[in-house]
Write a structure and sequence with these properties.
heterodimer; A: mainly alpha; 74% helix; 0% strand; globular; B: mainly alpha; Non-ribosomal Peptide Synthetase Peptidyl Carrier Protein, Chain A; 58% helix
Amino acid sequence: MKSYFVLIFVAVFMPVAMLAYSIVPKRLRGYVLLVFSYAFLMIMSGRPVVYLVAATLITYVTGLTMGHFQARRDAQLAEVKKGKKAIKEACKRTNRWVMVAGILLNLGMLFALNYLGFFAQVGSGLLSLFGIDKTFEPPLWIAPMGISFYTLMAVSYLVDVYRETVKPDRNLGRLALYLSFFPHIMEGPIARYSEIAQGTWEGNPINRQNLYTGFMRIAVGFAKKLIVADRLNLFVDPVFDDFSLVNGGIIALAAVLYTIQLYCDFSGCMDVAIGLGCIFNVSYPENFRQPFFSLTTSEFWQRWHITLGSWFKDYVYYPVSLSKRVKRLTTMARKRFGNKYGPLLVSSIALFCVWFLNGLWHGAGSQYLFFGMYYFVLIWLGGLIDPLARSLATKYGIDRDSKPYRLMRRVRTLLFVFVGELFFRANDLPSGLAMFKRIFTHFSLETILNGKIFNIGMDPADFIIAGIFIALVFARDYAYEHDHNLLAMISGKNAVIRWAAWIAIVMAVVIFGAYGHGYIPVDPMYAQF
Amino acid sequence: MRDQIIEILEDINPDADYETCTTLIDDRYLDSLSMVSLVAELEDTFDITIPAVEVTANNFNSVDAITKLVERLVEEDED
């Protein structure tokens, strides 16, 4: 079993987990989910979960230590009438060190397991620049599945305890389940402790409404992943692997199809995760909100992988841009460059940190760092140009809310996104640059017009099926964008219509899913990050 | 105080109706770049410190919420 998208998960793991959850007393249900979550991770990754156990214990002890100092501070505050501020400050200082220690231990594991090889390579490269021939050979540790996701969740918990927006959890089982719950361990959503910890542990019974909503969401996820994403992979993979054999038109098409593949793959996985959560009464935050309707690249990232973006915003962007040193810089910059451009210039420091880390989080590869820097430049320039565009529009009487103007902005944003995804998917940065160049130097539509496109991986039937289901995915997004919640509408109908709709989606997956003979199973794409 | 806050907001983004809007963050009238400007302006104008933990949608979704936050921080500073 390598993902949710296999029969053994749907036909065995899920029903057994639901059955076990339902038959045990309420107070034990959290433990049942914990056992199934660890079993899921062990089956999926095929190795012990020692790193997750270590991360959980570190996070637990760090949280409790901060809680201890907070309780001691409260006791001291109750006894004194003066000097309260000093007591508060002292506690904050101590807890800051405790928090930093907990975060560094968690990030240290992530770094050692995910990035050591990459930085050893970078180190060797730097030394060779100075004529020193030294190759670092770090131990070949294999990063455990889900580490990038649960590490961010652990860090958010520790910061929230430090900020006192959540109380340190005394229940080790609940904290362990928060980090490991099987719907999110593979690809997120990167939920906050305050959002899901209580819900996962409470053990409320599975009810009919949640069961239907959950099953429906899971079926939609399967359709996106198996009908669209895995089918498009047949075309995308060969083009990116052997791009020198195809012309620029095909490369451009592959960049567009890869973007759609990634969307259907990742958002499909999120549908399954959110659906599974729903069955067990856990409300996960949404991770996608119709990203292709964004007017700007900045907005795109508020709609695509939302939980990662908001994690970086809350735990990197604001802490950096509102730190004392950066605030001092902001004050200076405001005096020199004015209220609009001054803060913008200084916030570029925080924005750079966010996008450098965002790139690095996706993987230890030059293409991912380039991807991060690409969005840093685009979003920063967007912030710089927007006030100018606004005043130009006012000056020339252009209605920024008119449909053609909004459409133009959407198309522009999509083009930026397609280029970004081309670099993201490229095997490495030189390949990405060569592919981008080839779009212009070898542009031709010949392969598409003479039908040779069907030799690349997808036959005409694959294109037709993919086309129809992509249209359905976007029609659903269009409806959501215009406040028509299709799922809620179907849920409101009678049982026959509701289950007929579910069966129709399941049948579509069974008939049109890109699995079995002639197809290659594709692991969920974000599970590798 | 409320009028001063509206003035600051209008200078940052004139597109929203600040008297009625209660979704300044949710509907992206204030993005993360403009939030830095807003926080800097509020801190200067009211002589307060707004820590990162206070920069949430709940505290910045409407002029009323911002006013409440500023009032609270002014009070805390006086403590």
